[in-house]
Design brief:
Number of helices: 15
Number of domains: 1
Radius of gyration: 23 Å
Distance between the termini: 11 Å
Order of helices and strands: HHHHHHHHHHHHHHH
Largest sheet: none
Structural class: mainly alpha
Shape: globular
Helix content: 55-70%
Amino acid sequence: MRKAERVVLVGIVIAVAVALRWGFVATAHVPNPLRADAGQYAQCAHNLVEHGVYSLSTEVPPPPDSFRSPGYPLFLAACKVAGGEAHWMKWVMALQVVFGGLTVLLCYRVARAFLSFAPSLAASTLCALSPHLVVSGAYVLTECVTTFVLALGLWGLGATPERSALRRTLAALVLGCAVLCNETLVFVPLVAGCTLLRVIGWKRTIAFLFVALLPLGAWTVRNQSQPLVRTGSERMVASISHGSYPGMVLHDPRLVGFPYHEDPEQPAFGSSWSNLFDVLARRAAAEPWRYATWYLLEKPLWLWRWHLVQGNGALVYDVSNSPYDRQPVMVGSQSLMRWLHVPVMLLAAVGALVLAWNPRRRFGFLPQLLGLCAVFGTLAYLPVIPDPRYLQPLRPFLFVLACGAVAAAVGFVQGRRGCSRDASSSAENGGQIFQLGLPTSSRTAPPSS
C-alpha cells in the first residue's frame, strides 16, 4: 500500500473519532455536570483564577490544600481565563474533543513505531470507537486530558530514544505533566527510566528521570513549604478504605460500588493511616481467603472489565439524550466494542505480560515500556476502588498491545509454515513476519507513516 493511501485511511479513522466525540458532546446532556469530583476540579480552577490559590475550599479567601492533583484544574483555569465564566465549559468540551482526536493519532503513531501498518491502524480504530474514550470528553474529569498527555509523552519517547536528546527531554517533561494530572501515574517515568537504562546508559537515564519528576518535585516543594488544610494523603487513605470491600458490597446490594455509605466504621475507617490498618487488618484476619482473592484475583479482573464500578456501563455520570441510545452508528459501534471487549483485553493482557517480561530481550524499548505500563498500572490501582475508569489513560495502549499480539501470532504461524519450505521461500516468509509487526529489538527506526 502506498503512503498516500495509508494517510487517507488514518485520516478517515481520526475523522470518525472526532465525529463520534463531537456528536456525543453536542447532543448528550449531563445533568449537574459539576458534581462530586468534577465540582472539586472546577472549584480549584475558580480559586486559582479568582484568588491565585490552589484550593477546593469555598471560603474567601480560600486556604491552600493539595487534596486534588493540580494538572487538570490548571487546564480548567486556562479555559476560564480564555472563555470567562459564561463560556469556559464550551472551551473545555471543545478542547477535550480535539484532544480525543489527537489521542487516536498518537495511538497510531506509537503503534507504528514497532508494528506494521495493519495492526497499527486496527489499534487506532479501536481507540476511535471506544465508548469509554468517546464519552470522556463530555465530563469535567481528568481522564480525557490525562490520556492525551500520556499518549503525547510516550509518542515523544518513540522507538529510538537514543537518537534525539531534545525529543527525549521534551517527552520526559510531558510525562511529568501527565503525573501532575494523576499522581498515580508516577510509575510511568520510573518504568520508562528502568527500560531506558540499557538503551541510553545511566547518566542520560538520570537526566531523563530528573526532568520527568521535576513537575512533581515542584508540586511537592509547594506542599511542604506551607500549611495545608487538606492533603492528597487524606484522599489516598479514604480511597484505599473505599476499595477494601470484597465485591464492592457490604450488606445492601443496592449499594454495590458504594458500600462505604452503609459502613458504620466510616468515615473513621478512612480518616487516618492507623485507623485504615487497624480496621482492614481485623477484617482481613476474619476472612483471609475472601480478602486474598479480592485483592489478588478479582480486583485485576474488575479493572479490566467493561462496566464502570461507579457509573453506568461506560458512563461515569448518567446522561440524557445520549446518542448511544438512539443513533444507529453509535449504537452499532458500542455493540461492536462491547462484543470485542473480552477478546481484546485478553490479548492485551497476554501481550503486556510477555512484553514486560521480555525474555532474552527480544523486544525493543517501546513495546516493553507499554507492557510494563499495563502491568504496573494494574498493580497501582489494586489498593483502591477497582474502577476501569482509572485505567482509561492506558486504554489506547491496551489496544496497541492487543493488536500487536495478533500480529505476532500471525507472524509466528507464517514462520512455522516457512520451516517446511525451501530456503528461498523461508527467507521470503521471514520478511513477511517482519512487516506484519512482530516486535524485535533489531527494528530501530520507526516506519515513515
